[in-house]
Give the backbone structure.
Amino acid sequence: MHYEHFGMLLQELRKKHNMSREKLAENICTTKQIYRLEKGTSEPSIYLLHQLSIKFNMDLNEYYKMYFTKNTLVGLEGTKAINSAIESENLDLIKTLIEKYQGLEDFKQGHNLRHIYYGKALLSALSDKDYTTSLQYCFQGLLIECAAFQVDTIPDYTYSNTSLALINCTSQNYFAMDKQEEGMKVLQGLLAVLETHHIYPAYPMFQASPFAKKLYQTVLYNLSIHFFHHGDIKDSFLYVNKGIAFSTKEYSLKLLPELYEMKLKILYQEENFDEAKICYNHTLHLYKVTRKDVKLAALVDLAKSDYPEVLRN
């Protein structure tokens, strides 16, 4: 059957399951929201798609993306180009692309506009060191997808990849502004979202994307660093081991050397020199394998001053 909008599919599913609008909305949203969706006057958020998917035991998020998202060739090309520039950390290109696309009609709302805000947030933080403005861009992007977004309620919702990246950027802005408590709250909220809805979902229909897996490793690494710098060695060790175990299980080498170097730092701090030496050698090997020559050379030099015990025979 051809559906003109998502609401037609939703109404058919609801009736097939013999559910009233009130029953479908229960513990999810208001009955009025369900009515607006079914009439095609409103579009579902990622959070709502996730909750509806659970109710019907089918992945409506993927179905929605495949058949109901309205994107043009310009929109697709633009977001792809921005993502590629962000991935390569090319700030000049990000700036050029933002200037190119932000005035176009295709980038004035929704998914595409979130990409614009994310690019602007990164430029403000990394190029201008203006973390306050970067934080404002993060919130503007997040409010597009989740109108009820607040730092205190981050774990209560699910998010698109772009919004997950914006939340991570939010945490780093807070840390850069020396607002440690806010930064940790955001980072731990993001961890809860990733573990609940992406990495270890309760329903097998949801599979973690490569982006979510990569972000999960990054969050664990950052948590380990921040706990270490604040003297909480136990939690720092917990998160770094969690990151190593996950990276090893997923055969992901991208952040594994850095995770092992963090573990080396913790072990040495605890004067566990035998384990630290093993960890040091693992880290050297991983930096060689991943061809991170600059970091390899830096660790070799650092060991002479900071980790002399690992060099003893």
Observations:
- The chain has a mean pLDDT of 91.
- Residues 180-199 form the longest helix (20 residues).
